[in-house]
Amino acid sequence: MAKTILITGASSGIGRAAAKRFEREGWNVLATMPDMQAPHGLVESDHLIIAPLDVRDVGQCSQAVATATARFGQIDALLSNAGYGQYGAFEAISSDQIQNQFAVNVFGAMNVLRAVLPGFRTRGQGLVLVTSSAGAKVGLPTSELYISSKFALEGFFESIWYELRAVGISVKLIEPGGVDSGFHKVADRLTAAGGGIEAYENLYGRIVANRDRIIASGELVSSDDVATAIFAAATDGTSRLRYLVGEDAEHLDAAVRNKPEAEVLGMIARQYGLSELAPDAPATNAPH
């Protein structure tokens, strides 16, 4: 019997690539998205259906689970992928924008998880895959809302790993670095930049120039690469929690784990053209 996965945020990028990959591998897929009218490039079939789901809407989360269950019998896995980023200085970002960032990236993931858990728990098995970010380990300039939402997401899912494992449910965090998807276009469109505050405008301009340079370097992984990593995590049969995707993700993870804090802060500052903000290296015998 084919397994079934519910995927959120499947209209583009990683979610769309994952929907196609799981279908090719013989899974049943419920591909969900908040706007059914938006172009998504998915084609419904006997094994793939598309349904509306705004993860902020608890009722729609329950309905998506009901739809998948009615069509395919049960849900075996969830890919909690819906999310977005926005750039800008904190002072320039409105309270509504802040609330929505967490409503989608964090509370939305909780809403969908709550909807699938009763079925998983009753059967004593289930798999929860979460699209996180390598950036969930370190702050990045003028990306504080997106990054903090991923910090929160990782704290929640690492904590709940224990109670879910106790009832037969696995949790896996997928942590890509830079991805060649629509993410940056959305974040650029939503940017608050420096909000007209001169000190921030100058800083933001320098950061954008270096961010664009990084994106244009061609070192980003593709959405298909991430989908491959997600499928591998879904089928490796282990209790492993985190999966890094991309050389930049691996380098960042190694730096955070092995280098003193000042070195990591300096590394990020220089990467974004802010060398003058890099802290002095700590003394050899200084604790860190």
Automatic annotation (TrEMBL):
GO molecular function, one term: oxidoreductase activity
Classification via InterPro entries: NAD(P)-bd_dom_sf, SDR_fam, SDR_oxidoreductase
Ranges in a coiled coil: none
One Pfam short name: adh_short
Ribonucleoprotein in keyword set: no
Entry keyword annotation includes Oxidoreductase: yes
Keywords: Oxidoreductase
Family: Belongs to the short-chain dehydrogenases/reductases (SDR) family.
Cited PANTHER family: SHORT CHAIN DEHYDROGENASE, SHORT-CHAIN DEHYDROGENASE_REDUCTASE FAMILY PROTEIN
Protein name: SDR family NAD(P)-dependent oxidoreductase
Native organism: Glacieibacterium frigidum
Taxonomic lineage: Bacteria, Pseudomonadati, Pseudomonadota, Alphaproteobacteria, Sphingomonadales
